Structure formats: structure tokens, C-alpha cells
Request: fold
Amino acid sequence: MLQVLLVDDEPFILQGLAMLIDWEKEGFTLAGTAANGLEAIAFLEKTQVDLIIADIKMPAMTGIELLEKIRAEHISDAYFIILSGYSDFEYARKAIQYSCMDYILKPVRQAELLSVLNKVKADSTQSLQRREEVALQEKAYFARNLIALICGKFDQLNLEHVKSKMRTEGGIRYIDIEIDDRPEDESGKLLLKSEEEKRQQQRLLYQYCLDFLKQDGWHCILDVSSNEKDYDIGLVYCDYMAQEAGMDEQGYLDYFLQSIQQRMKQPVVMFAGNRVDDISLLSESYRTANIARSFQNFHVEGMTQRISWYEEQECAEERTLLCKSSLDDLIKAVEQNEKERIPELVDSLYEEINRNSLDAKLVSMNIDYLLFQLVHAAQAQDINVNQEEILEFINRNAFDSGTMRGSRMHLKRFAEEYADYLSQLRGKNIRGSVMSDVEQYIREHYAQNLTLKDLGLKYYINSAYLGQLFRKTYGVSFKDYLNNYRIEMAASLLLHTDLKNYEIMEKVGYHDLDYFINKFIALKGCTPARFRKKSRESNT
Reply:
């Protein structure tokens, strides 16, 4: 409903206007009345309205003076309609000068008032649509700049734009926020959600984060990951947030997490990257948040940490009750691809754990140490190896259904697969024909649900290593290459067909319209509708 303020010094005129039409039926609510311009100013300083209907001749302050003051002092940007018994054009001219919507002569006729109100509604709807599109583009443009910092591929323009929107005082952390996607029913069976349900919950989580952050909402970003299957929320935490709330960092994030969990009514988890001193170093914090996120999958059932700190994972080696000898033997066997020894070394590790009666938290600590060392082992094989690709391998290849999280069998299979991965990193160079075949396959099947794992199986190559080769060959990740190609195909369809956005979305392989539009804006700088309109205008 559009809020209306009626201003007239004659009470029977105000009463007559209120009774002349069914305001609510027409989409308006009478927010208040005023007897003159001064009363109207006092009302507007406390209450926001969308439309002001004022008499032109009133004591203390005329309607024209009221309009002039409102515009000059930016008191309200509401639509303004002048009522008058005067037909002198000079009054109309002055009203128009100060952006008056219309000028109606008394006595006011119902049909004329309805006509003006319809004009206000139509213009308000168009203005709202324009503001929403501008806001969407502004948010998408900001997201592009922030993601450039998160990924470590940015320039001074990216940095300056981010700083213009965000406060970056004190230490900074990247925090990954997600709904815990491993809830179980009473029988212990995992409850699977559809992609649509996950997307809806992600949007709800994002809104609750924005509600909590209030004026710091720019610090929160949707869809940081380029993977459509990830439903993450990114938070750029700065020390001033906790300081202004009168808390320490742990207390603030605990309070943040508790607040959004209560509204979501389901478990939410945070993965905190390490602290960096400047926003330009955000990519390092993001990288380590991903490591903390990846390790969470190994935590023993029932011991899921609601906030996982990278520093806690990194310090595992210094803690007591670390089965370091058994772990180091297993790491060595994985590095040397000694598959015949891996099962017995995993058994030895679990026997030591049982012998020492380690609780679930200490078991997770030992597994975390193992993962840290295996990540480092991959980097030792290839200094240019991308750590995100390693973590993707850990997440996607080691956690398939059919194995229990944290189990002995699970760890054996993961260790054997990782040994293969390291072996391929050591000496195979298959970039030529295989990468050419992969590229051709993508161009022919880009609209399908393509994954590195499926391509790896098709072309007989470890999926994580294929991801590394992809980045080296084309300069971008597999996901980014696929996304960019889909958007280019979408742009072509926009130029050469009259298909609607949702039809194009489906043809190029997306399943969520908002996700598709955001990705299109990120690559092309405008919405699909604007892209089509600009192209057609340039051809006329």
C-alpha cells in the first residue's frame, strides 16, 4: 500500500477527500492529515509517505512553499499533487518547477482523482522496478569485485570498490556459513533435500545473515563458490564488529551463529579461515576456511563443530594424544603409492586410537593432522598445484555415499584414491589430446550436468588431477570454464531467439533462474533482459 498525507486548512475538505474514494481498494492508505504546511513538515520528519496531496492556499505555509521546502531540503521524495481553486497558470508553472506530479482544480471530481492516483501507481511501480534492477546490478557488481579479492585475482579498482562499500578495520577473517547438510532422522538415516529446497534455505539463511549484520550487510555475499551444488554464504568478518558489540571474536561469532540458527530452526555451521591484516589478503583467509570446511567432513559422527577454526586444525601436531608415528607411516605409504600397505597401516592407526581410548574429538584431531600433511604432500609434488582443487578432490572423491563418515573403511578408500592422485601429479603429462577431447566434449554437452568426476571416469584420469590440468591449460577452473561457456551460449540465444529467460536458462544447463541471472550479470555486466535490449537497440 502507498502511504498518503492529506494537507488542507479546511477540515471538511480533508473529510471529503477521505470519503471520496475507497483508498485501500485503489492501493493506498491514508497515513495522516495536516492543516497547513508547517504541520505537514513536522509529520514528514517522523513518518515516510509515498504521496502528498496539498491545498495550494493555506495559512503559515502555502502548498507551493511546502513543495519547495520539501524538495530543497530533501525532506521527502514523495509524489506531490496540488489542489487549488485557482486556475492561474503561474501556480501550475511553479508546481511543475518543483517536480509536482499533477495539479487538480477544486472541487475535486472522483474520476479525476482516480486518474491521478492510477498515474502515481504506474510511475511508482516503474520506479520500484528500476530501483530493484539498479540494486541488483550494484550488488552483482560488488560481488564480482569482492569475489576477485576472495580468489586473489584483483587489481586496484576491485580493491577500491570493495573498500567503498565495506569497513575493513582491524584483523579480517573469511567465514564460510552453511546449513548443516547432514541432519538425520530418529533412525539415523540421512535426510536428503532437493536442490530447490537447498536453494530456498540458502536464500533464507542469507537474509537472516543480512538482518543480523544490518548496516554491515555488504560483508555478506551469496554464492561465493562457482559450484552450483554448493549452497554457501560468505562473511568477511572484521574485528570492529565484535568490538562494537562489546564482545570478543569467539563470543560475537557464537552469538551470530546462535541467532541465525534460532531463526532457521536447524543446525548451521561456520568455517573460519585464518586471520589476515588487510582486505587485500582475503584470499589467504578464504583458502584456509576451505581447508577447515573440508576437514569437517572427516569429523566423527556426533562431533560436528558448529564453528571450525583453521588455526585449531593447524595446531593439531602440537597437541597431546596425537598418534604421530602411525599417522606419519600412513602418510609415507600414501606418498609412495604403497597400496598394499595402506590397509594395514589404517588398521594400525585405529588400533592405537582404540588402545588409547581416544574420544571423538581427539579422533577428529588425528584425522585433521593427516589431512594437513596430505595437502602439503600434493603441494610438494607440484608447486603450482591449486589447493582448492585438492580440497575438491577430498570433498567429492572421499565422501561418496556407501561409506560411513570417519570409519576405517572410509579412510582406507580415501587413502588409496589419494595415493593415485599423488602418483599422477608426479609424472604424467597428458595435457595434449586428452584436454582437447575434454574441451570438445564440454562444447557438445555443456547443457548436461557435467562434473570433473564424470569426465575423469570417461577419459581414465583422476578427477582432481584433471582439474589441475584444466587450470593450467585454460587459466581458469573447470567450473569457471563451464559457467563462462554456458553464459556465452545464453548470450547467443538472447541475440538470435525470442526465448524467455527461464527457457534459455534450461537450454544452457542451469536450474535456478536467480542463479543464472546472477552469473550472467557477473560475466556480462547487466541482466539478460538488458543485454538483449541493448543489442537490439544498437542494431536499429
Observations:
- Residues 177 and 233 are 5 Å apart (CA to CA).
